[in-house]
Amino acid sequence: MLVPLSNTPRAYAWGSTDAIAALEGREPSGAPEAEVWFGDHAGDPAELEDGSTLDAWIAAHGAEHGVDGPLPYLLKLLAAGSPLSIQAHPSLEQARRGFAREEATGIPRDAAHRNYRDANHKPEVIVALSDTFEALAGFRSVADLDSLLSSLAGAAPEIASLRSRLLTGDPASTLREAVRDLLSGDASELAAEVSRAVAETDGGPFADDVAALARLEQAYPGDPGVGVALLLNRVVLSRGEAIFVPAGVPHAYLSGLGVELMAASDNVLRGGLTPKHIDVPELVEILDASPAPAPLLVAQARAAGVDVFEAPVSDFSLTRVRATAGADARIALAGPAIALATAGAPRVGGAATGTEHARTLAPGRALFVTPDEGSVLVGGAGEVFLAQPGALIGS
């Protein structure tokens, strides 16, 4: 079964005013357009042509087409016109424990101070659609932090002290303590030194990183999250490149348009660059503070024009198909899938229903494909991202 999907962009303040409109080939609305959700998540389920929603369709018809309950993933278009908050997501065990605790204490699920709105984890992949996509992801390596902090230290004793602790103590413990202190106000002088340093130094070999921090300081003056951002890898993706963010890894998307695929969850622990609630002890508890390179996810070529972004989770797998006329691609289904067009005019169908029922998709339009189709067929000319459960689902 093929079910056409669309949705209305969500008007978060950080959204771009033109990126999603340009992808869809329409005039901008004038409002920020941050995300378009393609899934059955209750927060904003995708819409069908008759005005109903995907969650309702799955509840009514899913079982007869091999769809066993809600989707384990949520597919999005994400367009950042200004920086998102620094955040991290819990592991599955942490989410279950935290959700049960907050349910037992009676915190309303829509309360601003609630951390766990469901009992699921939220690993995620984002693939750049814009020419560049700028993000922060994971703590920098010790060597990188040593060089960066050295370039900023000068006469700044707190920055020099942090560098010394990183070099002589356990780096993960030091970074976790630095985040805790910055966000709780116990490192107010360090935060002030970071703000002064990004305003007064060019950063030397880290000039682009310091310029990015200066933009964050301008967007969020006095926010201690700028000090947290100093500790994180800055990564600039080119179109088609991706990062994978597992549990506990702090990250923030700063600018650009991308396709995002995540486990179906709304659990967020924030770490700065936001006026929203920050639960510092809970964030520090779930934080993965291990220094490491940026978590890039390299696509694996499976066939001509077919690349798979295979994250090490069972919730989802993301395949990119770049179709050319006369060279159809076939992708086997591991479960219910959503095909989202991002360029050109690709034609998407299912093996069971045949090519006569295939749909030509404009960029920003999607199809829900049920498992009983067996495989997805992509032809025409254009680009499609196919979301479906990961290879380990049910294991």
Could you describe the 3D structure shown?
This protein has 395 residues and is an alpha+beta fold. The chain folds into 3 domains: 9-86 and 121-136 and 239-275, Jelly Rolls, CATH 2.60.120.10; 137-236, no CATH class; 300-388, Sandwich (Jelly Rolls). The chain contains 10 helices and 18 strands. The strands form 3 sheets. Strands 1, 11, 12, 13, 14, 15, 16, 17 and 18 form a 9-stranded antiparallel sheet that branches. Helix 4 (142-153) packs antiparallel against helix 5 (157-168), helix 5 runs antiparallel to helix 6 (171-184) and helix 6 packs antiparallel against helix 10. The two termini are 26 Å apart.
Mean pLDDT: 94
* Residue windows where pLDDT falls under 50 for at least 5 positions: none
CATH superfamily membership of the largest domain: Jelly Rolls
Order of helices and strands: EHEHEEHEEHHHHHHEEEEHEEEEEEEE
CATH class categorisation of the largest domain: Mainly Beta
What characterizes the major β-sheet?
9 strands, antiparallel
Structural class: alpha+beta
In total, the number of domains comes to 3
Please report the number of helical segments.
10
β content, as a range? 25-35%
What is the radius of gyration?
22 Å
Ends apart, CA distance between termini: 26 Å
Provide tags for this entry.
single chain, 395 residues, alpha+beta, Jelly Rolls, 3 domains, nine-stranded antiparallel beta sheet, seven-stranded antiparallel beta sheet, 28% strand
